[in-house]
Specification:
Number of helices: 6
Number of strands: 3
CATH superfamily of one domain: Winged helix-like DNA-binding domain superfamily/Winged helix DNA-binding domain
Shape: extended
Strand order of the largest sheet: 1-3-2
Largest sheet: 3 strands, antiparallel
CATH class of one domain: Mainly Alpha
Distance between the termini: 68 Å
Helix content: 55-70%
Radius of gyration: 24 Å
Mean pLDDT: 90
């Protein structure tokens, strides 16, 4: 009996994928839009003031809410713990932020703006407000609907 050549096994059958339009997938689009907006403003304050996005987020939250713990900043500014801590350390080193240890637990630290930090924000906030005005003009008639939609999404549990 003559050996017949073996044919290769059939490739595995892959299940069909559902139709998925990434260009219409809202979480993806929101993420890309947020990154573009953040980068657009970041270019301006990085060039003018030498700070990055994490530093901006810490500064603007301290300006808005006053003294904050690093833990609160992590949550409010959507920063990872390491990024929030490094940003706070850089801002402290430049004299924009003061760190105060918690009397009950020395591992916990509160941050507040120094007078130098307030002076920096007095220059930074007009830049941010001008950026906001540009976006308001771009969105014009759609701004109210966008803000209402963002409010809904921000209230939705993660």
């Amino acid at each position: 009996m003559e050996d017949q050549p073996h044919s290769p096994p059939d490739p595995p059958v892959e299940p069909p994928l559902p139709i998925f339009d990434l260009d219409r997938f809202l979480p993806y689009r929101m993420s890309v839009a947020a990154e573009r907006l953040s980068a657009g403003l970041a270019r301006r304050y990085r060039a003018q003031f030498g700070i990055g996005v994490p530093e901006w987020r810490v500064l603007v939250h301290l300006t808005h809410s006053g003294e904050q713990s690093v833990r609160d900043l992590e949550r409010r500014a959507s920063l990872e713990k390491s990024k929030a801590s490094r940003a706070a350390a850089r801002l402290e080193a430049t004299g924009y932020v003061a760190k105060t240890p918690n009397a009950g637990d020395r591992r916990l630290v509160s941050l507040s703006l120094t007078s130098e930090g307030r002076a920096l924000m007095a220059e930074l906030l007009p830049l941010a407000l001008a950026y906001q005005q540009r976006l308001d003009a771009l969105l014009a008639d759609h701004l109210g609907a966008l803000e209402a939609a963002l409010d809904l999404m921000m209230d939705e549990p993660a």
